[in-house]
Design a protein that fits this description.
- A hairpin with a 2-residue loop joins strand 6 and strand 7.
- Helix 2 runs antiparallel to helix 3 and helix 5 packs antiparallel against helix 12.
- By secondary structure, the chain is α+β, with helices and mostly antiparallel strands.
- It has 3 domains: 94 residues, no CATH class; 81 residues; 217 residues.
- Helices cover 34% and strands 13% of the residues.
């Protein structure tokens, strides 16, 4: 009596053969599929010999063990059902394993197989790169400096001149005191319109976290959210409990100094249209949201708003609500569209209402022309010139080194281990 190769006949056993169950054999069995199953099936089915011959035609091998005869039709039926069961369970196992796999989808980007170019840093390439950067940056910097120097900018600090020296805070808080102040500014150079009017504040920290958060953007944008006053304390509701629109400390502290100009005893009109960003007017402030209960408490923080105009048209408020990042900042007040000649004298009547004295701040009026780089700003030009000059100096230094101490590209004698053992270049 003989058994299949993978079967063993236990002593004193006349019923069936036992499969040697080993994990490596099971793995190979799962990998090879039904073709390698006859030996295992022979141990489980009553008719292992017929099953084996059916799975492996032409073998004609006698697989009886312990004098048992396996020749029943039931064995063939069980063979087919068990084979189908094994193949279904194997496919299910493979599909579950594929679903549970965390292997990322293959792509050249994730596998870092995209085509790349790494330049060989020869002396010529290094010198050429530094020279090109210097040649490009220096002219840009000089042009920026020239444009910045052509801008005419007049700054007049008026907070110390337009208030009583004895009691500055009391002077500002007294509502019955006339706070008009007249200032005269002489123009040193011709100023071509439009001339931008700014107010400049110092030591005013609009970037303070509690100050920045003291607003409700939904209330500013949608009429249905007029009652939303989240984060607006202490300027959330009026004395009678009604919600304030717009609420919060930013709107409450709106700048309220005013300026009126005259040139050669003729009044100059100030254009206050389009001083705010179009994106702010269209997306952040609603055209159907109107001010209500604003600046009606016991303590007035700043300017009042026209309750007949929607917030999207209150451009002074929109400009003020875009908070500054630094404690010294300028905000656009308006524009003078006419040209002003050199030596002309501008008379400015200032209503000094805004209280910067309680926190040690300063106020100034700024008149400025513009150019293709905006207002006066020497930093951009200086940065370009400095960077371009450094690159040109580096290029010249590499040229000198290349001429005086040239180095052969790819010379193995420059390797560290060859420098340590000069007699053994290998």
């Amino acid at each position: 009596m003989t058994c299949p190769v993978s079967l063993s006949c236990p002593p004193r056993s006349s019923a069936r053969c036992v499969v040697r169950r080993r994990r490596p054999q099971l793995r190979s069995l799962r990998a090879s599929g039904v073709a390698l199953l006859p030996a295992v099936l022979a141990a489980r089915l009553p008719d292992a010999d017929a099953a084996h011959q059916k799975l492996v035609p032409g073998t004609g091998r006698n697989t009886r063990c312990a004098g048992s005869t396996f020749a029943s039709r039931q064995g063939s039926a069980r063979l087919g059902s068990w084979t189908a069961e094994m193949s279904v369970s194997g496919s299910e196992t493979d599909s579950v394993a594929s679903r549970r796999s965390k292997k990322p989808k293959y792509s050249k980007f994730t596998q870092q197989e995209l085509p790349a170019c790494k330049p060989l840093l020869t002396p010529g390439i290094v010198i050429g790169a530094f020279s090109l950067i210097g040649i490009v940056f220096v002219p840009i910097g000089l042009a920026s400096l020239s444009a910045s120097q052509d801008i005419v900018e007049l700054i007049d600090r008026y907070d110390a001149e337009c208030v009583s020296a004895n009691d500055k805070v009391g002077f500002i808080q007294d509502t019955k005191t006339d706070k008009a102040c007249t200032r005269k500014i002489t123009v040193p150079k011709p100023m071509k319109g439009p001339i931008h009017i700014y107010y400049q504040l110092e030591n005013f920290y609009q970037n303070h976290r509690r100050y920045v958060k003291s607003r409700n953007d939904k209330q500013l944008r949608m009429k249905e959210s007029a009652s939303l006053i989240t984060n607006c304390e202490p300027e959330a509701t009026s004395q009678d409990g009604a919600p304030i629109v717009p609420c919060g400390l930013i709107a409450w502290s709106l700048f309220n100094d005013t300026y009126s100009f005259s040139l050669n005893k003729k009044a100059i009109e100030v254009n206050k249209k389009n001083i705010a960003w179009d994106s702010d007017k269209s997306t952040k402030f609603g055209s159907d949201v109107f001010p209500s209960n604003f600046q009606k408490g016991g303590l007035i923080g700043g300017a009042k708003l026209n309750e007949k105009l929607p917030l999207s048209q209150q451009e002074d408020l929109i400009v003020w609500m875009r908070t500054a990042a630094l404690p010294t900042f300028r905000k656009l007040y308006g524009r003078i569209e006419t040209d002003i000649m050199a030596s002309d004298e501008i008379t400015v009547v200032i209503q000094n209402n805004y209280n910067t004295y309680s926190f040690g701040g300063t106020k100034a009026l700024v008149l400025s022309t513009t150019s293709w780089i905006g207002g006066r700003n020497n930093f951009i030009g200086v940065a370009y010139v400095a960077m371009g000059g450094i690159c040109l100096l580096l290029a010249m230094g590499f040229v000198v080194l290349y001429v005086l101490k040239p180095r052969t590209l790819g010379d193995p004698s420059y390797l560290s281990w060859n420098k340590e053992n000069p007699d053994n270049p290998n």
